[in-house]
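My hope is that you will study the protein record below before we discuss the fold together.
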Amino acid sequence: MKAFLILEDGTVFTGTSIGSTKDMISEIVFNTSMTGYLEVLTDPSYAGQAVVMTYPLIGNYGITPDKESKKAWPDGYIVRELSRMPSNFRCEGTIQDFLKEQDIPGIAGVDTRALTKILREKGTMNGMITTNENYKLEEILPRLKEYRVGDVVTKVTCSGKYVLEGTGKKVALLDLGAKKNIAKSLHQRGCEVTVYPAHTTAEEIISSHPDGIMLSNGPGDPADCTSIIKEIKKLYDSDIPIFAICLGHQLMALATGATTHKLKYGHRGGNHPVKDLKTNRVYISSQNHGYVVDAENVDPNIAVPAFVNVNDGTNEGLSYVGKNIFTVQFHPEACPGPQDSGYLFDRFIEMMGGTK
């Protein structure tokens, strides 16, 4: 069946329908990872977005147990070529069947290099995937321009508190759209991890007397999370050690008076270089974000830049002055990788008074 990808600038790509055949309107973003398509599909940070995979062949090892959450979150999926015969000893099914099960519309056979160049040059834009060959641009384009991602943190967070038992430090993890490997990375280091829904009050978290607090990744515009930001400010004032990733990093910055802005086309993939400003060492990182903290608007009496993106100079981390708090824009829990910055979890353990 034919499918069409229509961008809000009027560009139309024609391909083959994969997955669900329903119409889909979303923000179109691209990911440069060469592997890990299942982790991308199950990353809650992609809620409200449709993902273009720049790597040309997707699905060659099928669906494996490597999910980062219980379901898929992107609104749509766009690939150059879809492998019809996956081969892997862990394979549990095909990606096309998985997309149908998850009711996610997709399109294959698209020139993803040309599409990515458009998104790089013009910036991230909204788009529609449809199988309706009688579509009318004059009716669709106004709908695309009106689309907003909205409050997706509420959509992706856990429904209730739960605990991963451990004998080490007690960590409260605020689930803003957390990837499974964040809790797993802490649990593997012996921590008892209590996962809280995104709208949990600071008072409830603090009253449990955690040794440390983890703020997770998540989707959407950080400035929209006004009620969560107020609670994070209380956590900042508590003097409990805090480690924050991605959206959590942005929300901590907003809670302490900084600002954020939307990138032209974002950082998404497993090959982004970041420099540790303390050691000048460069790490390859996994990233998935469309917004960044404005480093020039960070009060140096509150926080100082800790990491910087080598490609474009944007902020990739903050160290908070006089506080046991550090935050990063990238993903040290990267799954499937790279694992270069996994040592940050060890730093967090040490900050809580533990050992590696």
The first strand starts at residue 2 and ends at 7. The CA atoms of residues 177 and 218 lie 4 Å apart.
